[in-house]
Predict the structure.
Amino acid sequence: MFVNYKTSGIFLKKIDKGEANQLFTIYTKDFGRLEVMGKGIRKMASKLRSQTRILSFSDIEFIQGKAGKTLTDSRIKEKFEKISLDLDKTETAEKIVGLVALTVRGQERDEKSWQLLLETLYFLKKTELRESHAVYQYFFWNFMAGLGYRPQLDVCCFCLRKLANEIYFEPAEGGISCKSCRPKGERDCPIDAGILRILRVFEKSDLEAAARIKFSLNQKNKLETISTSFLSTIL
Ligand SMILES: [Zn+2]
């Protein structure tokens, strides 16, 4: 007799397997990241087909067999259709679920990360935004912090002095450095006090405050660069 497990989760990713199966990566409330096989799901008659959309928030049931987990039921609670109707929000939501799929490895309950993911998707759904770049950046830095990668933004990560200008971001050190301490020969990533202020708002404030920040194009590109290089050092 197999035990039937129930939880709720966000569908992050799906990969076709064989003729009719699909392997789902789901971030769940009770078990963290799960990989669950949807058997026969690509057949027209499969009742689970419409209930396993990427991004959807669903109640799911699965059984644990010797070879892995099999999805036995899924009912969508929230499709986030309002996100799907907006191209910019869709891209942001895809980046968010992609980030979760990429960075969460273990099957472990993590209430804080789960709440952050849900809160961010609901915020995207309900909030009128000219663009949602800040929402992704807010999610990125807070999700990383929840996984144990909180950047050190108060002092130079080498000499521990407080920094006011000529600040460099050091992805490999997980923090910032001053001009004299920065590792020589590596590609410099200077950041200004404005970027530092934005990163601190992400750390100390909520999504509403983060979404209200006005970025210059330059700041937007810089944040994109430092989040991407920070991510590459932890993968
Ligand atoms: Zn220093």
Notes: The helical segments are 81-84, 87-103, 111-126, 133-146, 193-204, 207-212, 217-234.
